[in-house]
Amino acid sequence: MLKTKPLRMASDPSGGAISSWKHDPLHDVIAPMADHVIMTFPAEPLRFERRTGKEFVNGKHRPGTVTIISSGSSSRWNTDQPANVIQLYLPHITLQRVAHEADAAAPDDLVERSAHPDPVTSRLLLSGADALEGNAALDTLFRQQITDLLATRLLVAYAGSPVTIQPVIGGLSPTVLRRAIERLRSDSDVDVSLAALASDAGLSRFHFCRAFKESTGLSPHAWLRQHRLEQALNMLRDTDDAIVSIAAALGYSSQTAFAAAFRKLTGETPSSWRRRMR
């Protein structure tokens, strides 16, 4: 769409994709997209013009604003300065699935907006575009959760008619919770996707996530990240294994990725934490 490659992209085959772009000034017609596109601009304000068959908008993107472009929509854009932009590509079928799981009516389309103040959606997009941790199980679970959260938010705010998400009533039963935790604690090659966890529980992805958090106080991704940290602490304290070996045993793609994730959670590098605890 922007005639350049994204800086990074994280995709969920069962949901959508979030990408981070940096592009030059734009003066072009953007062809219709197969998916809904939700955009936020995390850095400096960006003045723009957007012209569709229905309207002309002359405005300014600021941090905390979003632009909603429905699938099949085309418009001409004019911007006079380079820009950083985060985009969510959301298939309509994902929106329909989340609506069905939330017991809400699926919208025919999304209401389009340009530079609309919406710090909630903007923060979710920024979270989804953050550098991932280099751990396949954690990263997959995170992408699936953030995509479903964004789809839920779009249903509530941009479905064209009010959508009410019912509150959680109770968590998982002890047996179902135990099965979910056993799967999350399993070896790194075991499927810990939301689809697998929800299927074990006999629930939709939407209801499983809400019930799991009600039971544990944490989302499935946050629970697994905390579990991986506890494993790392035990291995660093109780063994002489090399840090690169610990990283591999916990499913991290490299020692660098493990060290960055560890420091993000503890404020220390693995080696400095190990020295301090011995």
Q: CATH architecture of the largest domain, please?
A: Sandwich
Please provide the count of β strands. 10
Q: How far is it from the N-terminal to the C-terminal residue, by CA?
A: 54 Å
Q: Any idea of the CATH topology of the largest domain?
A: Jelly Rolls
Q: Indicate the mean pLDDT.
A: 89
Tally of separate helices? 10
Short overview:
This protein is of the alpha+beta class and 278 residues long. The protein has helices at 92-101, 119-129, 136-158, 174-185, 194-201, 205-216, 220-238, 243-249, 255-266, 270-277, and strands spanning 8-11, 17-23, 27-30, 36-40, 46-51, 56-61, 65-69, 75-79, 83-90, 113-117.
Which key terms come to mind for this protein?
single chain, 278 residues, alpha+beta, Jelly Rolls, Arc Repressor Mutant, subunit A, 3 domains, six-stranded antiparallel beta sheet, four-stranded antiparallel beta sheet, 10 helices, 20% strand, globular
